[in-house]
């Protein structure tokens, strides 16, 4: 992947005629996944009123998350077998099918089936966006393309509740799912013109059944912990999840068939530190799920306003990533990588101290600004960590596996973070003020711990191709 000195670079090239369709498809896949998550959260209270079985409410997110993690672990193998275009179309199919099942569900149990099928497609789409990006675009555009794709989570945070709220208010929650399936079909139409039609073999590595089983059990245990009301059972399930994660790592270290690249478990490679730093940053985003609740209970905000308060962190990291991805000097990239968890931790800790009972408009505005700043910490580091993972090997198969592993690491981190957040909120109950302070304090401490892996992620040289246009920047 090379470019001439005269070729345009940066955002004009990425969004220009040559790569415009590719960028739209890759960003659109993640946007579908992200909008679906937040749209469904907004629609579900209305849907549950029609479908009944309120006791199954929390399972909607759980089955979706578990299915997403499972499918995300198969991304590199799907890409190896079907190529970029075939894999992407394969992922869109279950997403669209699951979405339509949700749209026509007569009972809650059928909707949960649809959510699980959605999750299988969504996990593939999100993972493929990073893995296909590595194949479909030249290396000097990876940072900006990663920023564009990742920023779609911010778009989902804003657009999902807005679209879902509109359809719910009109009493047409089923049509929201139909519209989402329509967008998936539109992306499927564009994809053949945007993605490479790479011919792949039918062989490839065997499926790492044991690794998949252990990580799936870990995800189930941790996800279920997040919906349990009893603190003791919640802690037991989290501990069980941690045990399964430990078994997964132990198995992966000695198994010839892995989910993550072999270099993840070697001393000389920085990939494990890159993954850990990404996991810490991703776990900080789970505060967005609880911020609207605290906005309503502590500041008396209307649901619509509280929802936008919860989106402030996404606004911060989405905007910051656009600018951080343009940083090309290695020392500046290293500084941004280390500054990321520092800024995130500071923002979360300051927010913990800002919450008050009967918080007034001034406090809410201040909280919003600090949350934007906290999100900016994620935006500073994310593009450079993700590109570092994609550049971690000159071997095409290992590089694709490293890129595909990014989404798996993010999903696991968010599942773990959600469970920890649930414990902290429950520990503070019945006081919403105590719950808010414990939540942001706990997540702030986790973010501070992330400074160490971020520093280690920048220490080791990254394997680079000799023809990389940015290798000598």
How are the SSEs placed, and which strands pair?
Blueprint: H1 11-14, H2 20-51, H3 59-72, H4 75-104, H5 108-136, H6 142-169, H7 173-194, H8 209-225, H9 231-254, H10 271-284, H11 291-299, H12 303-310, H13 312-324, H14 330-354, H15 361-390, H16 396-428, H17 432-449, H18 451-457
Helix pairs in contact: 2-5, 2-6, 2-7, 3-5, 3-8, 3-16, 4-5, 4-7, 4-16, 5-6, 5-16, 6-7, 6-12, 6-13, 6-15, 8-9, 8-16, 9-16, 10-14, 10-15, 10-16, 10-17, 10-18, 11-12, 13-15, 14-15, 14-17, 14-18, 15-16, 16-17
Terminal residue distance = 16 Å
Q: Kindly state the percentage of residues in helix.
A: over 70%
Low-confidence stretches: 1-7, 461-473
Q: Round the Cα radius of gyration to an integer and report it.
A: 21 Å
CATH superfamily of the largest domain: MFS general substrate transporter like domains
Count of domains: 3
Outline, from the CA principal axes? Answer: globular
* Beta-strand segment tally: 0
CATH topological fold name of the largest domain:
Growth Hormone, Chain: A
CATH class of the largest domain: Mainly Alpha
């Amino acid at each position: 992947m090379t470019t001439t000195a005269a070729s345009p670079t940066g955002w004009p090239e990425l969004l220009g005629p040559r790569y415009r369709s590719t960028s739209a498809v890759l960003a659109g896949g993640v946007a579908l996944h992200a909008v679906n998550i937040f749209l469904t959260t907004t629609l579900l209270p209305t849907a549950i009123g029609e479908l009944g079985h309120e006791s199954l409410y929390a399972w909607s997110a759980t089955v979706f998350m578990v299915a997403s993690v499972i499918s995300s672990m198969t991304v590199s193998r799907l890409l190896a077998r079907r190529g970029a275009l075939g894999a992407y179309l394969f992922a869109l199919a279950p997403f669209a099918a699951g979405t339509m099942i949700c749209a026509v569900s007569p009972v809650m149990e059928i909707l949960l089936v649809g959510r699980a099928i959605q999750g299988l497609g969504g996990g593939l789409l999100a993972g493929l966006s990073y893995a296909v990006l590595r194949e479909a675009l030249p290396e000097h555009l990876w940072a900006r393309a990663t920023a564009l794709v990742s920023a779609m989570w911010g778009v989902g945070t804003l657009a999902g509740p807005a679209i879902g709220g509109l359809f719910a208010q009109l009493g047409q929650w089923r049509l929201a799912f139909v519209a989402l399936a329509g967008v998936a079909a539109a992306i499927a139409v564009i994809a053949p013109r945007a993605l490479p039609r790479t011919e792949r073999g039918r062989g490839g590595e065997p499926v790492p059944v044991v690794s998949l089983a252990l990580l799936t059990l870990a995800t189930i245990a941790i996800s279920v912990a997040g919906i349990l009301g009893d603190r003791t059972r919640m802690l037991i399930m989290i501990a069980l999840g941690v045990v399964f994660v430990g078994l997964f790592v132990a198995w992966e270290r000695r198994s010839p068939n892995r989910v993550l690249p072999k270099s993840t478990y070697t001393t000389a490679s920085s990939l494990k530190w890159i993954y850990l730093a990404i996991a810490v940053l991703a776990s900080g985003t789970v505060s967005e799920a609880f911020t609207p609740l605290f906005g309503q209970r502590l500041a008396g905000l209307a649901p619509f306003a509280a929802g936008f308060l919860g989106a402030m962190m996404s606004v911060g990291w989405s905007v910051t990533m656009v600018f951080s991805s343009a940083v090309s000097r290695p020392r500046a990239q290293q500084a941004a990588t280390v500054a990321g968890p520092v800024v995130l931790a500071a923002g979360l800790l300051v927010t913990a101290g800002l919450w008050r009972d009967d918080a007034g408009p001034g406090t809410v505005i201040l909280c919003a600004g600090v949350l934007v700043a906290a999100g900016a910490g994620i935006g500073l580091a994310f593009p450079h960590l993700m590109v570092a993972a994609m550049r971690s090997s000159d071997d095409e198969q290992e590089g694709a596996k490293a890129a595909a592993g990014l989404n798996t690491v993010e999903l696991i981190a968010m599942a773990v973070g959600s469970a920890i957040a649930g414990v902290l909120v429950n520990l503070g109950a019945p006081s919403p003020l105590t719950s808010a302070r414990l939540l942001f304090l706990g997540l702030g401490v986790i973010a501070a711990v992330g400074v160490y892996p971020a520093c280690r992620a920048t220490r080791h040289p990254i394997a680079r191709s000799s023809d990389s246009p940015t290798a000598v920047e």
